[in-house]
Amino acid sequence: MAEDDSDQRLGETIRMMRQRAGLSIQEVAKTTGLSTGMISQVERALATPSVRTLRLLSIALGVPISYFFEDHEPVSPVRYIVRKNDRRLLRLTASGVVKEALTPAEKGEIEFYELTLNPGGSSGTDFVRHSGEKAGYVLAGRLRLWLDHEAHVLEPGDSFRFPSTVPHMFDNPTQQVARVIWVTTLG
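Now predict its structure.
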């Protein structure tokens, strides 16, 4: 992995952990003693944090420092449960989407995720289609869901379900972070 990719992944992981904890950059800055500018630069991969900075961030976010470097396999011995801090990060894309698995790693018929879309984040520029169904619920922000080349803007509290054979893609056309519960059947 290139250094820029590593910095991007690390920054997005830190941002996701901060947002999951419900903390603003200002709150993390106050807890760590780091400047808001430094935290913002690390999250946007404009600065590479020192080990000291990572240690302070890990304390503020309530995770071990190794969390920023490891693949996150669940540590819980319970195979049907996923604890908040044991979620698998399935995709961190340059397109501004963080995808966290809410279902255990064991294969099943349903996959369940929490998507965090940064401003301008998207599933890509191409419509996709495949077997199964998709459904979701918008927790925060706005999601623009394109179904068969028609745009639908969904707000918090809105939900959807459609056959995955319908050409689809999604994006966040706003300047606010969007969070969506996303369900996929594998049928």
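The beta strands are 89-92, 97-101, 110-117, 133-140, 143-147, 150-154, 159-163, 168-171, 178-185.
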